[in-house]
Specification:
The complex is a heterodimer of chains A (437) and B (250). Helices cover 54% and strands 9% of the residues of chain A. By secondary structure, chain A is of the alpha/beta class. Chain A has one domain. In chain A, the strands form two sheets. Chain A has a four-stranded parallel beta sheet with strand order 2-1-3-4, with helices on both faces. In chain A, strands 6-5-7-8 form a four-stranded parallel beta sheet, with helices on both faces. In chain A, strand 1, helix 3 and strand 2 form a beta-alpha-beta unit. Helices cover 38% and strands 21% of the residues of chain B. Chain B is built from eight helices and ten strands. In chain B, strand 9, helix 7 and strand 10 form a beta-alpha-beta unit. The chains are: A alpha/beta (437), B alpha/beta (250). Chains A and B meet through helix 18 and helix 19 of A and helix 2 and strand 8 of B.
Chain lengths: 437, 250
Amino acid sequence: MSLFEYILNYKIFGATYFKLQKIKEQIFFKYPKSWNTDIFAPPLKIGSYTKELISSHYLEGRFVKGVKPVAWVTSGAPVEILKALGFYILYPENHGALCGAKKVAVDLCVEAEKRGYSIDICSYSRTDFGSIFSGKTPVGKLPKPDLLLTCSNICQTVLYWYQVLSHYFKVPLLIIDTPFLYEKAKDYEIEYVKKQLEDSIPICEKVAKKNLNFKKLKKVVKLSKEATELWFEIIKTAKNKPSPISVFDQFIHMAPIVEMRGEEKTVKFYNILLNELKDRISNGIGAVKNEKKRVLWDNLPIWYKIKFFSEFLAENGVAVVASTYTNAWGELCSLIDPDRPIESVSKTYLHPILNRSTKDKLYTIFNMIDEFSIDGVILHSDRSCKPYSIGQIDQRKKFIEKKQIPAILIESDHNDSRAFSDEQIKNRLLTLIEMME
Amino acid sequence: MVSLGIDAGSTTIKIIGIDKNKKIVFEKIENTEPDIDKQVKRLLKNIKISEIKIVVTGYGSNLIKFATKKVTEITCHATGAFYYFKKGGTLIDIGGQDSKVVIISDNGKVLDFTMNDKCAAGTGRFLENIAWRLKIPVERMGDIALNSEKEVNISSTCAVFAESEVISMLARGEELEAVIKGLHRALVKRIGAMANSLNIFPPLILSGGVSKNKAIQRMLKEELGFNILIPENPQIIGAYGAAILGIDRI
């Protein structure tokens, strides 16, 4: 791909087209056809902006090869160094979620299964493998990576997943190992991660064919911090009764904080969203019109059933106002320090909820139950995400015992709809609703 | 009759009518037919349903269009068991295609529950499949199990795989009675594991068609160590609870 094609197709035509689309949608604001106005407030206006950011991101990916170095990274990987070196960054997990939401993930999983990948491995990885092997993707085309970066802070699967990618694409693989935290991180653990990050810099520089500018790195880390702080403030607005934003809205609008950390446009985006939510709060507008009960969601979303959950619960006056998943992208904002970029990034990426003990997760949820005035908990036992699901049976009991609120476990999978049983899940949700009455 | 409760289960449909003192005055049980709405109308043809509250529950409940209200099986079973025995405790309901454990408080509220998920292990279908394969009436399975001193270990709790395991055991020369006893034990172990995932307390109340099985009753008592209460007709508890909710909640 040449620089000319990149500028023409992405910078000029693509970006302008998406910008115009956004402006058009903002001026002639229309509800989606299937929007149920009896149970929901009007859709958030930020929706058109979210669409612009995500579409532009994937459009850039189509024309970026040969223009910028490309890295594929895990959702919890420290991307700031890559950002400062000008990499185009692709998150296969986000792409997987998009495939899930577009209901094409199972077809892609089957492509991977046909090549011998077990149905028991994570459906994000199967979606990714299936997409690579078949070339199918709802975004048109994914750029091949020049570098792979994986980090053990979210699960062990990503270590094997990225080895497959490295073998397939024949490109360097960087592994950042983050020791599991049974208690607060020790200095030597932070030092251990910091050393790995420092060691990774020459490899990243070699692939990027340029040297890391520390001033630029500081700026990227500062922007990461600002966006993370804004996101944390955004999810905290759900403490209001009624909540101006539901967790299902958060699942959609969290894409930029995951895949566009360290960019100015992300900070701008979340500032606009926060202002919109503040407006809703001052006008007493709740995302769910008839908010009677407030629920917390644990674990990943069930991407292909977001509409189902959102409508089914809202019809029964239930607003899902807090989730450990969306909280995870904001709760560590105070650890980021732009003046000590490598050290603070090391500390931050050691602390995601999936790299902390189950006890720590329990207390995180206890605090959220109090902060967000939660009446019940839905624990999604995600067949594909074992690290997130482990401990849920005991945690569920603790919510009932210590917080005296009902909590249910629903068995499913974030991307593989073959693990979703409609009637069984409706039954459990309705029982939860009856128990909260 | 002031209220009707209909439990449209996957295997059988149960209808209970009660008077204002919550006494059962009407009772019907039949195997579930594909057209549930038509079946219920036929079963209620001599009753003026327009003057009665009708609460429905069970997987087929959405198909009963003339219902006053729909309530989940968990709440209906808890309510039925509580009003039947006038006390709380741990309800174990083993039906045709699902089984559930419900913790009921001293005032009849659901404190906690669990159900089987995506799998027929621990349900009536587990025994039904094998009974059909062995050409033994399912009602006789419990007695056969109780009459056997010997018991073989069935490792599979999967309703499909247990079938092949049983056939290979019989081919190996194991006694039929001992195999059937082992099957009951496998089912009870599965239910026991579900129950122990909750904070259970006595008494143990059994409901659902499978709880008529004497071997299941005895083994559950052994497995969980609690005294057991069984309604005269354990199949009707959900429908009875639904009928009560017609008076108390509507």
